From TrEMBL:
Any one GO molecular function term: ATP binding
Keywords from the named record: Antibiotic resistance, ATP-binding, Cell inner membrane, Cell membrane, Membrane, Nucleotide-binding, Transmembrane, Transmembrane helix, Transport
UniProt domain ABC transporter: residue ranges: 12-244
GO biological process, one term: response to antibiotic
InterPro entries xref list: AAA+_ATPase, ABC_transporter-like_ATP-bd, ABC_transporter-like_CS, ABC_transpr_LolD-like, MacB-like_ATP-bd, P-loop_NTPase
Record-given protein name: ABC transporter ATP-binding protein
GO cellular component, one term: membrane protein complex
Protein family per UniProt: Belongs to the ABC transporter superfamily. Macrolide exporter (TC 3.A.1.122) family.
CDD domains documented for this protein: ABC_MJ0796_LolCDE_FtsE
Region (Disordered): 226-249
Amino acid sequence: MVLRNEGVVPALECRELGKTYGAGRIVLAHLDFTLAPGEFVAIMGDSGVGKSTLLNLIAGLDSADSGDVIIDGSAVSRLDDNAATRLRRKKLGFVFQAFHVLPHLTLAQNVALPLLLNDLPTAGALDMLAAVGLGGRGDDFPRQLSGGELQRVAIARALVHRPKLILADEPTGNLDPDTAHDVLGLFRAQSKATGAATIMVTHSEAAAAVADRILILSDGGLHASSGRNAFAGSPPGSRSTARSADDAR
Ligand SMILES: Nc1ncnc2c1ncn2[C@@H]1O[C@H](COP(=O)(O)OP(=O)(O)O)[C@@H](O)[C@H]1O
Ligand SMILES: [Mg+2]
């Protein structure tokens, strides 16, 4: 268990975060959340409840109406656009649900992108590919890869610059159960190896089970999961949002 430790700068703090779309669709309201360095948190919740919105606000892909996002001690929501972009580029890794691996770049070039953007030496990209089980594949192109392999490239790219904070939006959502299981193990091992704190949004209880903490997003805020009770009214397996990885073990 990770305890809040005075003197340790949280990897992420969300304070009083609010987001409303259009005329009155309140998605997030007064959301408070603190993530310790190295901690791995799973966020679950019904479809449309605001999970992607929350990740997008943290990543700066969308802007909050109110509140603050503080990454590794810096209030990014209060920086100007250029400074916020630089900080996020350095401190954040994002694993998108649909991989977003660039098709015209080789695997090595895809993984090297965050290094290039941060003016870091790109040699580490090949080591990172090897760490996710794709050693020797650096010159291949994404079209030559399976879904599980593409997800490994996406994870390698999110971790290669050793960010403080990893955001993953349903990283096993497109994978078969066996591949989901492998990718989760890898993901957790790699984030622990680099010391990154991780938020993983998932519909899969099996995926969430690898996390240090499970939180449920509902009514605009994050709430501690209390085992099965968290899904009261929707027994496991009956939810329309259940994914194939639910059975991954
Ligand atoms: N750009 C947008 N404009 C208007 N409404 C949006 C936008 N993005 C998301 N929403 C709405 O916000 C709610 C939360 O969406 P989202 O964060 O994608 O949910 P989740 O990831 O939990 O399934 C949904 O009702 C969705 O329709
Ligand atoms: Mg979503």
